Amino acid sequence: MPLVTTKEMFKKAYEGGYAIGAFNVNNMEIIQGIVQAGQKLNAPLILQVSAGARKYANHTYLTKLVEAAVIETGLPIALHLDHGPNFETCKSCIDGGFTSVMIDGSHFPYEENVELTKKVVAYAHAHGVTVEGELGQLSGIEDDVNVSEEDASYTKPEQVEDFVTRTGVDSLAIAIGTSHGAFKFKPGQKPQLRFDILEEVSRRLPNFPIVLHGASSVVPEFVKQINEFGGALDDAIGIPEEMLREAAKMAVCKINIDSDLRLAMTAAVRKYLAENPKHFDPRQYLAPARSAIEAMVMHKIETVLGCAGKA
Ligand code: G3H
Ligand code: 13P
Ligand code: ZN
Fold first, then answer.
1. What is the value of pTM for the model shown?
2. Ligand 1 pocket mutation pick from 55, 102, 132, 141 by most atoms within 8 angstroms of CB
3. The domain over range 7-305 is classified in CATH as 3.20.20.70
C-alpha cells in the first residue's frame, strides 16, 4: 500500500469514536519506534514533519525513511507537513511526496488566514493531497514561533463554518486549552480543556474532523527518569490523558504528539549513558531510545487514541 491521505482515516475515526496519532518525526530511530508500535497494535498512523525537521534532517531523507516504513509495515500511513508556515513550504511538500499538509495561518488576521489557506487547498486538492487549517492560537513554541500565554486565544466557534466553507479545508485544528511543549500549565494550576468549545464547533461542523495540537501529557514516569539522571524538568506538566481520550471519542480525529516522544527518548538516552559511562557506540543508546518511543506510542494508541486494530 502506498502512502495514504487522511481522508479515509478521518472518516473511519469520526464514525468509530477514536483518533489517529500524529507523531512528529526527525530521524530514523523515531520513525522506526513509531511504526513498530503501529505494527504491533495494527494501528493507522500519521507521521508528521515540521519545517524545523525538514531543516534538520532534509526533506528527501525523511520522505524516503517514511516510504521505507510503509514498505516494511504495510500500514496505512499519511505523511503530513506540520505547521506549514507559508504557501511555498506547502507546495514543496506536496510536490515532494507528502500526502497531507497543514497550513498554519492562525497567527494572521482572519481574512489573511482564509486567503492563504484557500490558496494551499486549491493547489493541494489539485494534487490529491488533504489540508489541515487552524483557527485560534495555542501558546508555546513551534519552530521559531513563540506564542506567549497572553497572545494565545481560544477558537471562536462562530468563525468555523465560514472558515471551512470558504477555504475547503479537510480538517481543522482548534485551540481549547492545549499548548505546545512540556510546560503547559503553571505548577499548582489545574489542567483544563474547553470541551464546551469543542462541542459547539462540532455542532456547527457536523461529521467534520477536528485536530488537537499540543496534546502531549508529559508522562510523569519519563520526567522523573530525566530528572533522576541529571535533567531539570521539575515544572513540566501536560494534558491529562483521560481528557484526550474524551476528546477522541468526540469530533477530534487527529491528536498531535511530539513532546512525549522527546521526553521518552531523552529519558532513555540519559539513563543508558549514566549507567554505562564507558559506552560510546551510538547504536547502544539509540536502541533503548527507539524502544522507549515504541512503548510510548503503544501506550498512546491504547490509552488515548483508541485506534488499535483500525489499520
Ligand atoms: O508543534 C511543533 C512540533 O512539536 C514540532 O516542533 O518545530 O521544534 O520541530 P519543531
Ligand atoms: P506537544 O508539544 O504537546 O507534543 O504538541 C505537538 C504538536 O502539536 C505538533 O504539531
Ligand atoms: Zn502543533
1. 0.96
2. 141
3. yes
